[in-house]
Amino acid sequence: MPIPVRTLLGPGPSNPYPEATEALARPLLGHLDPEFLHILDETCHRLREVFGTANARTLPLSGTGSAGMEAAFVNTLDPGDVVVVAVNGLFGERMVDIAGRCGAEVVRVDTPWGRPVDAEQVLAAHPAPKLIAVVHAETSTGVISDVSGIGAGKGEALLLVDCVTSLGGIELPIDDWGVDLAYSGSQKCLGVAPGLAPFTMNERAWARRVLAPRSWYLDLGMLGAYLGEGRKYHHTAPVAMIASLHAGLGRVLDEGLPAVRARHQASGEALQRGLQEMGLELFASEGSRLPQLTTVCVPDGADAHAVRRQLLHDYGIEIGAGVGVWADQVWRIGLMGYNARPAVVTLILGALREVLAR
Amino acid sequence: MPIPVRTLLGPGPSNPYPEATEALARPLLGHLDPEFLHILDETCHRLREVFGTANARTLPLSGTGSAGMEAAFVNTLDPGDVVVVAVNGLFGERMVDIAGRCGAEVVRVDTPWGRPVDAEQVLAAHPAPKLIAVVHAETSTGVISDVSGIGAGKGEALLLVDCVTSLGGIELPIDDWGVDLAYSGSQKCLGVAPGLAPFTMNERAWARRVLAPRSWYLDLGMLGAYLGEGRKYHHTAPVAMIASLHAGLGRVLDEGLPAVRARHQASGEALQRGLQEMGLELFASEGSRLPQLTTVCVPDGADAHAVRRQLLHDYGIEIGAGVGVWADQVWRIGLMGYNARPAVVTLILGALREVLAR
Question: What is the CATH code for B7-13+257-357?
C-alpha cells in the first residue's frame, strides 16, 4: 500500500522536524546506557532553556501531554486541598476532572470559550488556595491567557500552567512569570511526534508536594531518583521518543528561540490575515489569538466536515474540527514547529480557497 | 559524533525488528486520521492474536509497561477491596506498591526470588479476594510461574497477569488460562522500542471495574470511547510508536507465533547450555527458567560491573545487572524479539568467554 503523507495542520500533532524523525529511527540504546543518560541529561537541559527556567526538576515524562497534567495534580493535591481552576476551554475542564479525582476542593472560574482568562477574577476566587491552575494556550479555542498577571498576584499559592500548545511557539519565561509547575507535549510547537510530556517544577512546588501520590507511574519523587546521581531505575524510559525530543529541541535551539517564535508569529499573522481577506471570521477574541493555532468560523453554507474531508482527501492536509458545541462551527488550523513557515501558509490558504469555491 | 550501536541483551529494551524501526520514521499521521485509525484497529486485532484472546478491550496504552500495571490496578480496585499479590521479584513488589496506593487491602504471598510462584499457596491466601495478581515472567529473576493453575482455581476472583516479558516470547493463551486482565510492554519479545503497554481485559473484568478511577489518563472507560464507534477524543495517541508496534506485530505474525516461540526457546536453551558449559551457574531454579531472559550467577573472582562495562565498551553489548541484593551477584541476559537468534547466542557467549578470560 502507498504510504500516506500528510500536512498536519490540526491542533497537533504537527509534522515533526526532519531532525526529530531521523533520531527516532537511530539504533536503539538501553535506558541505563551511559550514552543514553547523556542524551537524557542534555534533553532536560534543553527543556530548561525552552521553558525559561533554572528548575533542576525538568524532565520529559513518559506519556502524552495529558499525563503531564495528571502528574502535576497528583503530585500537588492531597484530598481536601483547595485548587482554583480557570476554565475557558476543554483543557481547563480536564483540569477540573483530574483535580476532582485527587479529592481536592475545586473552585472553578469560568470564562466563555473563545475569550481569555481574567487574572484578577482568578486571583479573587479564593483567599488561600494551595494551587491555581490555568491553561496558557487553550488548544480547544486558540486563545492565549495572561499567566504573568496571575504569577504576580498568586501570594502563597502555587501556580500550575498548561503549556502544551505554547511551549516553543510563543514567549514563556516561566521563572520570570512566577510559574511553579508546568507541563507540555512533544507534538505541538516542539515539532516532535506525540508521546512525551515535558515537565518542570521548582523548589517551592517540590517542598509542598504530595509525599505518596496516588500514581506510582507519575510519582515525581521516584522519577527524580532516576535523573539524579544514583540513576535508580524507575520504569523503562521511552528511549526512542526521548532521542527524538532531544533532536527536535536541538533544532529549535540551533535556530534560536527568538527566531523560532518570530517564525510562529509571522506565520500565524499571515494565516489570520489571509483568512479574513477571504471573508472568514476568526473565533478567538481579538488581542488573544494564538499565532500557532488559529480558530476560524465555518462560513454559512459550508459543510464543516465535508471541507475537512476534502482537504484531507484531495490535498493531504489535516485541519481540526471545533470542540464540543463548536464541532461544526469552527475549524482549528495549527502552524506549529516545522509547519510554521510561509510555504505552508500559502498552501492552506490556497487549498481552503479552492475547496470553498467548489 | 559517531552514532553508538548496541546489541541490547539486557532485560529490555531489546533491538527492535527492522520493520518496527522503519515504521517509526514514516511520515506522521494525525491521531484522528482514518488511515491512522485503521492502523490502530489492526494493531488491536494483532494484539488479540498475540495475547490469545477474543477480548474486545485490547489496546496499546500510551505509556511503558508500568503504566499498564497501574492501569490494571486503578481500574479494578476500590479502597478496601482485597487483592492477593504473588511476590517473587521486583515486579510483584511493584504490584504491592501500586495496589496499596489504590487503598486496597493487600494480601501478599512471598516466594524467594529465583523460584516460581506456587499456585496452591496463592489460591489459599484469602477465601474471597476481588483480585489475584501474578507476574508470568519475572524480569528481575528470569523465572516463569504457572498462571493456568491460578486461573483454574480462582473462583469468583479476577485474575490479573503481568506479561511484560512473556508476551510474544512464550506460550500465553490468556483466554484458555482464565486470565481476566493482562498488560505487557512493547520493548521485550515484541521487538519494538519502549513506550507502549499492550493491555487487555475481558467482559468479566469490565463488569466489575472501578467506575471513576483515580487516574484520568488511564481511565479505561474513557479510553474505550476512542476505540469504539464514536472515536471520541481522549488524549493524543502516540501515533509514531503505535505505527511501530503495528509493524512489529505484523512481523511477528508473518513469521507465525509458533515459529517465533520456537526461536525464543531454542536461543534461550542454547545460551543456557553454553553458559553452563563455561562452568557458570544459572540463578533461576531449574524447570522455571525463561528462555528469553537468562539469569546467571557472577563467578567467583569476577567483577560484575567491570565485565558489563567491558562488554559494552569493547563489543557494544549490553547485558543487565541483577536486581536488589543480587546487583553484583547476577547478570541478566535477554534474547528477546529480533535478538532471539543463533548469531546473537554465539556473539554473547564468545564475548563473555573472552572478557572472563582476561
Answer: 3.90.1150.10
Q: What mean pLDDT is predicted for residues B260-273? A: 98
Q: For residue A182, what are the β-bridge partners?
A: A161, A200
Chain A contact set for B231 (CB, 8 A): none
Q: B18-254 in CATH: which number?
A: 3.40.640.10
pLDDT exceeds cutoff 70 at B322: yes
C-alpha span between B125 and A249 (Å, rounded): 52
DSSP H helices in chain A? 18-24, 34-51, 65-74, 90-101, 119-124, 147-153, 203-207, 220-227, 239-255, 257-277, 304-315, 342-357
Of B12, B194, B239, the CB nearest to A194: B239
Q: Where in chain B is the domain with CATH 3.90.1150.10?
A: 7-13+257-357
Tell me the C-alpha distance between B187 and B100, whole Å: 27
- Residue B159: φ, ψ to 5°: -115, 120
Q: What's the start-to-end Cα distance of chain B, in Å? A: 30
Nearest to A88 by CA among A121, A118, A124, A116: A116
Cα separation, B335 vs B10, whole angstroms: 8
Q: In this complex, do A4 and B237 lie within 8 Å of one another by their Cβ atoms?
A: no
Mean pLDDT of B262-266: 98
Contact B318 A30 (CB under 8 A): yes
Nearest to A168 by CA among A6, A16, A332: A16
Contact A216 B94 (CB under 8 A): yes
Amino acid B191 reads: G
Of A26, A30, A195, the CB nearest to B8: A30
Preferred mutation among B236, B242, B315, B331 to probe A, highest tally of A CBs within 10 A: B236
Report pLDDT digits (tens) over A71-122.
999 999 999 999 999 999 999 999 999 999 999 999 999 999 999 999 999 9
Residue B288 has pLDDT above 90, yes or no: yes
With residues binned 3-state (H G I as helix, E B as strand, rest as coil), the percentages for chain A, rounded to 5, are 40, 15, 45
Whether residue A193 and residue B65 make contact (CB cut-off 8 A), yes or no, is no
Alpha-carbon distance B339 to nearest alpha carbon in chain A (angstroms): 13
| pLDDT, tens digit (0-9, with 9 covering 90-100), for A325-337 | 999 999 999 999 9
Please list, in sequence order, all residues whose beta carbon lies within 8 angstroms of the beta carbon of residue B340, skipping any fewer than 6 positions away.
B169, B189, B260, B263, B264, B267, B268, B291, B292
* For A96, nearest residue in chain B (alpha carbons): B216
Of the candidates B210, B98, B228, B67, which has an alpha carbon nearest to the alpha carbon of residue A197?
Answer: B67
**How large is the average pLDDT for residues B95-114?**
97
Write out chain A residues lying below 8 Å of B165, CB-based.
Answer: none
Instruction: Find, in chain A, the residue whose alpha carbon is nearest to that of B312.
Output: A33
What local confidence, expressed as pLDDT, does residue A330 receive?
98
Pick from A22, A64, A217: which is nearest to B238 by CB?
A: A64
The pLDDT of residue A228 is above 80: no
Which of A34, A195, A215 lies closest to B238 in CB terms? A195
Interface ipTM: 0.96
Mean pLDDT for chain B overall:
97
Grid cell in block for residue A115: 475569550
| pLDDT grade for B2, boundaries at 50, 70 and 90 | confident
First CA to last CA distance, chain A: 30
**Looking at chain A, which residue has its C-alpha nearest residue B100?**
A214
- Region(s) of chain A under CATH 3.40.640.10: 18-254
Q: What is the pLDDT of residue B233?
A: 81
Cβ distance B215 to A214 less than 8 Å, yes or no, reads yes
**Count of CB pairs separated by less than 8 Å, A with B:** 179
pLDDT band at A229; cut points 50, 70, 90: low
B150 has a pLDDT exceeding 80: yes
Note if the pTM is more than 0.95: yes
User: Which of A131, A85, A126, A77 has the alpha carbon at shortest distance from A108?
Assistant: A85
Mean pLDDT of B330-334: 98
